[in-house]
User: Fold this.
Amino acid sequence: MVQVALLASLCGGLLAGCQRVPRGLELTSYQDPYFPQRFRVAFDQCVYHVDGSGDIHIAGRAETAADDTADAITSLLHIHVFWRPHPGATFVNPTGMSATLRYVEHSAAGTAVYGGTGFVYPRTQRDRTLLAQIDSGTLALDSTTGRPPERIGDARLRGRLRARRDAHQTLDLMRTIKLHVGGAQSER
Assistant:
């Protein structure tokens, strides 16, 4: 009986240490490394497309309303999940990845473009939606235009996305991101 109680408390402690992956994106900004700041982005629109080579492209768009102190911010996301991942067997190996990430924050004052890599685990549902879990993602500032919102800097990200299959909207969002990237000045 004591062994059962000990085993139950050990399992409970292990499960309490596991964190649930949030719906949407959770960005942890390390602009100030001593005081990391978390942001959540819930996408109003999230779509995906499978290209001819079998790679999956996930695109999302989120709008945050303006308050008295800041402009409205449009967040755009493009995840390119490789059919044949790049080297790296598990997410424990930081040199490996299965996806490239591009994240854009745009406001009337300017645009910030972030790029990075991560592990994305896609799973197609019966209703043709795609569930994608993002683990161990990293982002760094690639380029800026104007005076963009200074919210993120270098960041880690994780999350879960539910995307519906729509090739036209996915390609449209990817084009919108490329337009923002094309006009931005490199930070590196």
Notes: Residues 1-21 have pLDDT under 50 and may be disordered. Residues 21-186 form one domain. Helices lie at 2-17, 167-182. The first helix runs from residue 2 to 17.
